[in-house]
Amino acid sequence: MLAAHPLPQTLGELRTSTRFPESCLKSRSIKDEMRGNLMARLQAHEALFPGIVGYEDSVIPQIINAVLSKQNFILLGLRGQAKSRILRALTVLLDEHLPYIAGCEIRDNPYLPLCKRCRDLVAAEGDATPIAYLRREERYVEKLATPDVTVADLIGDIDPIKAARGAKDLSSELTMHYGLLPRANRGIFAINELPDLAAKIQVALFNIMQEGDVQIKGYPVRLELDLVLVFSANPEDYTARGKIVTPLKDRIGSEIRTHYPESLEEGMAITAQEAWAERGQAAIEIPNYIREIIEQVAFSAREDKKVDKRSGVSQRLPISTMELVVSNAERRALMNGETVVLPRVSDIYAALPGMTGKLELEYEGEMKGTDTVVRDLVRTSVGKIFDRVFDGADTKQVEQWFNLGGTVQLDDDHPAAAALADLKQIQGLLDKLKPIGISKSDPAPKIVSAAEFFLEGLVAHRKLSRTEERVFTAQEPSTRRAERTELEVEYDDWQRARRTPRSGYN
């Protein structure tokens, strides 16, 4: 195999290189570079943002339009909608290597140096000026906006220590300390949570957004930076009533709205991609209904009136829940010497710590308590997936077994073989598991997980009852009323009041 052609190491070598033509480096901005590389990828039908699921027909086309239009843009969305990941993935649209004057703080173009140090170096060294190269990932600079960010952090300031060490006058351009924006020259500069910047800092971005230059602390010098500026923000803050300065908002080319997965299948694909479920030490088999229930918890939470809609429910909720579910099943397998790690619905309840911290509750939810709200969400999700899987299933035979006094305990640490022996006592239960492809010849962990899902579905529909010790019993009439929704109880009370003769005056 032939060795890769070495990159030019001096300005003279660069001038004679066909890989980096002088006319191209002089005239092509980073926005031109991204536009050209994007066009090539579109023509070759290459994936633009691998790993980003659910945005193929919504967000990604809008980003493509913004890049083709050479616009700065902002991603607006709630937490956990892959905004930062998308911004970081923009580096795939950059060239693999970019030459700059070695040692330059602002990555100066060898043919068009901006800073005095580089201009002096080129004048002194000429074609011997050393050249270094930036990899595409080094051309992405990210800053999380916080109220304590200063103009000096972003733009720059006078550095008296640099002046003293170099015996320079403070009025010299060589005493400047460059901020993040100049240091991101010829690259992508991203600001996360833009409205959290103080108003005066937002004003400091005006020039770079419109004219493409910055001025540092009163110096009579303009740095015409070559940048792509991208931002992210919460839609609630990005309004006139929020914390955004309207003239800055006007200077941003495109506002692109992100969103949560629109279907259960999209959410499951994201969770399967991101969750650390394949541990490598043991065989791990996650039933599809377990994946569906975990994802449904997030979907149900986004619809629940007790959960704050302005904060949203991050996709990190099902991801962290999946990891904890697998870990709890792994713990049980290790304790009982089982070779297969196969999660159950009880493992989802054991993963409550992965859900409670992901929810911001409204007042009504805070009154009920986070644990109670999350348990209700899990139970609701189990019920919905049960209806999808066992649509129209006749459960009377199983209910009758419990109504005749039968009970069964499926403890969180219960070995699969022992649990299966208890479940076989329930008449007709194992025959009901055919819709999810379970037969009596399947391994015990697989049958137990499916059977527990079936019983939990009956509990979710209030046809059975289950204690905190995970003992399944018949549903008592008094318990049945206590577990009904407030609306159902109020409606029955109203109906009863209508039928009761009124006393008092006629």
User: How many strands?
Assistant: 16
The proportion of residues in beta strands is 5-15%
Helix content: 40-55%
Largest beta sheet: strand ordering: 4-7-10-1-11
Tertiary shape? elongated
Mean pLDDT: 88
Rounded to the nearest angstrom, the distance between the terminal CA atoms is: 105 Å
Poorly predicted regions: 502-506
Radius of gyration: 31 Å
- Work out the count of structural domains: 2
Largest sheet: 5 strands, parallel
Number of helical stretches of at least 4 residues? 24
Class derived from helix and strand content: alpha/beta
Describe this protein's structure.
- By secondary structure, the protein is an alpha/beta fold.
- The protein has two domains: 173 residues, Rossmann fold (3-Layer(aba) Sandwich), CATH 3.40.50; 224 residues, no CATH class.
- The chain has 24 helices and 16 strands.
- The protein has a five-stranded parallel beta sheet. It has a three-stranded antiparallel beta sheet with strand order 14-16-15.
- Strand 15 and strand 16 form a beta hairpin.
- Helix 14 packs across helix 19.
- The longest helix has 21 residues.
- The radius of gyration is 31 Å and the shape is elongated.
- The N and C termini lie far apart (105 Å).
- The C terminus is likely disordered.
